[in-house]
Amino acid sequence: MAETAESLTDAQIAVYPVDARGLVTYSVFDASNSGRDKFGRSMGRPGRMQQEISRQSAELASAHGTMNELADRTGGKAFYNRNDLDVAIRKSIDDGSTYYTLAYYPENKNWNGKFRKIHVKVDRQGVKVRHRLGYYALDPKMITEADQKRRATTFGKALSLDFPVSTGLRFHAGVVQPSDKTENRVLVNFGLDPHAISFEKQDDGLQHAIVDCAVQAYTEKGKLIKTEVTTLRMALKPDTFTRLMRTVVPCQRSIDLAPGNYLLRLGVMDDNTSLIGTTNARVTIALPAAAIKQ
């Protein structure tokens, strides 16, 4: 549960569990109850009904406890023991739609892996703050390496033809046939929506972002032939950043393919948010004129 909650909070996901059973009652009081417990034993025996009630109560408390723990650890809220499920879902959507993102650098550099609690207070009456309970003191270098591997794995899956097209990061793309200008390689020009990219202003006063642009080629039968990836690192001055926000972020990737018919999976990924966009294309590369004459 702790690992799951940590993965969700790292992905900035707040969980709002809703118990779809509504208001739960004990089965021993149900009109359809046969008078026997789940083992087929008679409930008329002294103490057996109380034991069954206690068992069901413990199971229900465990389920709701898990819901509460997951919600508390990720900054959400659990909804149970209520039949107005539509209201619960609406409240969870309303609650999760308004939030602030806060960040800080820990002064304690002893990365011992232990759990460190976080307390967030506001100087305003009548306000209840929901936030993640804390974090594990893991070495940032280890986290960065793990994140890079995780992003690479996720991007690799998204580039597979068996994976649904991703729409998290908008972009346009154009495929250019091989020629002398492209050094006889297929050239793909990407144009990304700058508003969908997460730029971060750093201490140098520049707007930083990292975007990966990839081309993955398959045969018509779906066999993977080749993958080419370009990593675009941007560090923009304020005026350049302002101009860029009025146009598109250009990215280019070429791929060397032999004559034939190919399916292309084109993809882009924002390294800061792991948002991915993919689309499919086709390209036919003809034999060189000299080869046709022969």
Describe this structure in words.
The protein has 294 residues and is an alpha+beta fold. 27% of the residues lie in helices and 25% in strands. The strands form 3 sheets. Strands 5, 6, 7, 9 and 10 form a 5-stranded antiparallel beta sheet that branches. The chain has a 3-stranded antiparallel beta sheet with strand order 3-4-8, with no helix packed on it. The radius of gyration is 28 Å and the shape is extended.
Report how far apart the termini are: 67 Å
Kindly give the count of domains.
2
Contiguous helical run count:
6
CATH superfamily of the largest domain: Immunoglobulins
Rg result: 28 Å
Architecture (CATH level 2) name of the largest domain:
Sandwich
Element order: H for helix, E for strand: HHHEEHEEEEEHEEEH
- Which whole number gives the mean pLDDT? 86
Brief description of this entry?
With 294 residues, the protein is an alpha+beta fold.
Question: Could you name the key traits of this structure?
Answer:
294 residues; alpha+beta; Immunoglobulin-like; 2 domains; five-stranded antiparallel β-sheet; 6 helices
